[in-house]
């Protein structure tokens, strides 16, 4: 009897050990094979600009390549209209208004000073044309007309602008009007303005083309886009200029070259020519010495770890959003990816639940981290499946 018991126990141990060999979880921190070494590229110091503040951002990765006084709160002048235009585009895409809808031009809009679209009071103008008046002609009258059409008043529209700024996590921005006309409580920063530009490009790409249009005619008055770089640099395709006495000459420009899109923000230069030249310096520096690559697509499966007590034994693990990385030019092949996966994953697991971290490294330094999430749900298994997995987990604990 004792011999039989010992023999049975031995068979159970062997069976469990065999199962562990088949079902053992994958490694929790994994590294791809080391790439062949390649010569590192040299990156010189960023250019110094004749401006109050500036930022150079990669539009896809969001990486800040160059910055100076990036978070300093400054008057943004007509760069404000990027947020005005963003809200209009958001309302159109949400179906709340149509580009063909017509807004009635109020006397308040008509009387607004500064740069103008030259609207006539009492006339009706389509939302699409008013948007061109804002983006291309920097029309304060068009900005007020859109604000009144969407929110009923400038103050109510400013509330919408500040709510949107909060959603974008802009910590150094506060709006008092849709035009950028001076107010002591109306301010933004170079970094926040780059984020607004990034949202314009990524959130509503169907509307972005208007930012590259060089001329717009309304009321028989043909006005050029004030962004000089649209004529000088074929890679530049938007976004917005600004100028007041307090703000100086400002420019937010975006350009795309060889698959890399950059956003340059320059605030507080001395002239129209200076803002174009200083912005060009930033863009040239960025394209010369940096590059961006999409490493993983949204939903890409990066691992299939073990799940205990579930209807299935593994789940698909990956990233919820596209992963872009910006590095010095010529060093993409030197990147390393590391997956740090939760040691034990028990069912149930919800789709989108965070189960680890993807770390992108260069020279041993972490450049970016992204959540690793379950790409599918895993419900709890039945009683016997959970019991069996519990036994396996218990025994596996002796070997872990």
Q: Overview of this structure, please?
A:
With 400 residues, the chain is an alpha+beta fold. 31% of the residues lie in helices and 25% in strands. It has ten helices and 17 strands. The protein has helices at residues 2-23, 81-93, 107-111, 127-135, 140-151, 154-167, 190-203, 229-232, 272-289, 383-396; strands at 29-30, 53-58, 64-68, 102-104, 124-126, 215-218, 221-224, 236-244, 248-257, 260-269, 290-296, 301-303, 317-318, 323-328, 336-341, 354-362, 365-374. A six-stranded antiparallel sheet has the order 1-15-16-17-13-12, with no helix packed on it. A five-stranded antiparallel sheet has the order 3-2-10-9-8, sandwiched between helices. Helix 4 packs across helix 5. Residues 1-29 and 32-39 have low confidence and may be disordered. Pathway: Cell wall biogenesis; peptidoglycan biosynthesis. Its EC number is 3.4.16.4. Removes C-terminal D-alanyl residues from sugar-peptide cell wall precursors. It comes from Chromohalobacter canadensis. Residues 290-380 form the Peptidase S11 D-Ala-D-Ala carboxypeptidase A C-terminal domain.
């Amino acid at each position: 009897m004792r011999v039989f018991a010992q023999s049975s126990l031995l068979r159970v141990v062997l069976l469990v050990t065999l199962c562990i060999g088949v079902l053992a979880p994958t490694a929790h921190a994994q590294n791809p094979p080391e790439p062949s070494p390649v010569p590192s590229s040299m990156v010189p110091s960023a250019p110094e600009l004749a401006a109050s503040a500036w930022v150079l951002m990669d539009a896809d990765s969001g990486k800040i390549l160059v910055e100076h006084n990036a978070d300093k709160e400054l008057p943004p002048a007509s760069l404000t209209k990027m947020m005005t235009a963003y809200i209009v585009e958001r309302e159109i895409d949400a179906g709340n208004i149509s580009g063909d809808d017509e807004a009635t031009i109020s006397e308040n809009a008509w009387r607004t000073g500064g740069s103008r679209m030259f609207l006539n009071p009492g006339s009706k103008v389509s939302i699409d044309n008013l948007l061109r008046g804002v983006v291309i002609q920097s029309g304060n009258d068009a900005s007020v007309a859109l604000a009144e059409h969407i929110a009923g008043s400038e103050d109510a529209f400013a509330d919408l602008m500040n709510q949107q700024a909060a959603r974008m996590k802009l910590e150094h921005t506060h709006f008092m009007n849709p035009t950028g006309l001076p107010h002591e409580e109306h301010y933004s920063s170079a970094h926040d303005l780059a984020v607004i530009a990034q949202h314009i490009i990524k959130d509503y790409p169907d509307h972005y083309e208007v930012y590259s249009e060089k001329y717009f005619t309304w009321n028989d008055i043909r006005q050029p886009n004030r962004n000089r770089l649209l004529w000088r640099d074929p890679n530049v395709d938007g976004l917005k200029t600004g100028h007041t006495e307090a703000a100086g000459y400002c420019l937010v420009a975006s350009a795309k070259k060889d698959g890399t899109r950059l956003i340059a923000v320059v605030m507080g230069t001395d002239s129209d020519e200076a803002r174009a030249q200083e912005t060009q310096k930033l863009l040239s520096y960025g394209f010369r010495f940096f590059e961006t690559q999409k490493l993983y697509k949204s939903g890409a499966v990066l691992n299939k770890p073990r799940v205990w007590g579930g209807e299935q034994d593994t789940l698909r693990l990956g990233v919820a959003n596209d992963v872009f990385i910006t590095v010095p030019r010529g060093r993409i092949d030197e990147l390393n990816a590391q997956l740090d996966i939760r040691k034990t994953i028990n069912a149930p697991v919800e789709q989108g639940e965070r189960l680890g971290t993807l770390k992108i490294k260069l020279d041993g330094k972490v450049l970016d981290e992204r959540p690793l999430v379950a790409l599918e749900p895993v419900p709890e298994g039945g009683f016997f499946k959970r019991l069996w997995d519990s036994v396996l987990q218990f025994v596996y604990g002796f070997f872990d």
